[in-house]
Design goal:
Blueprint (H helix, E strand, L loop, with lengths): L7 H7 L6 E4 L3 E5 L7 E7 L14 H17 L5 E4 L15 E5 L9
Antiparallel strand pairs: 1-2, 2-3, 3-5, 4-5
The structure holds 2'-deoxyguanosine-5'-monophosphate.
Length: 115
């Protein structure tokens, strides 16, 4: 029988995989990254499964506003005034989990341009 592999972030959203959740509403979820690249490193996902920004439709576009708004709320909660929001799209751009997510990174200095 063919094995159906569930998306990791869908499994986190449903609670089947544990994560340190910092915020949830009816459309988004925010949880701490398991391999943090900054003192504060939170991932914000839509509850709806969309593999990448490239896979989004026009109808999905408002979700991006929700994701950024959730990032803003989490940053406020963590008392972050300076932070970076990153979305990797595609393997060569660093995307390793194919469920749209924004990285909220804070608590250290960030260089520019990014690597
Ligand atoms: P990206 O490389 O942009 O697709 O980011 C995926 C992030 O997901 C990466 O920073 C590590 C994080 N991650 C991978 N597996 C898990 C997990 O099981 N739990 C949590 N909390 N984060 C994970």
């Amino acid at each position: 029988m063919e094995e159906i592999k569930e998306c990791l972030f869908c499994a986190i959203a449903s609670g089947r995989v544990k994560a340190e959740v910092v915020y949830r509403d009816d459309e988004t979820l925010a949880f701490r990254d398991v391999d943090p690249k900054a003192p504060d490193h939170v991932l914000i996902i839509p509850l709806k499964h969309i593999a990448s920004v490239s896979e989004m439709s026009d109808e999905d576009a408002p979700l991006m506003g929700k994701i950024v708004n959730t990032a803003r709320k989490v940053a406020l909660e963590l008392s972050l005034e300076n932070y970076r929001l990153v979305i990797n799209n595609g393997k060569d751009a660093g995307q390793s989990v194919f469920h749209v997510h924004a990285h909220l990174l804070g608590g250290r200095l960030f260089g520019w341009p990014p690597g």
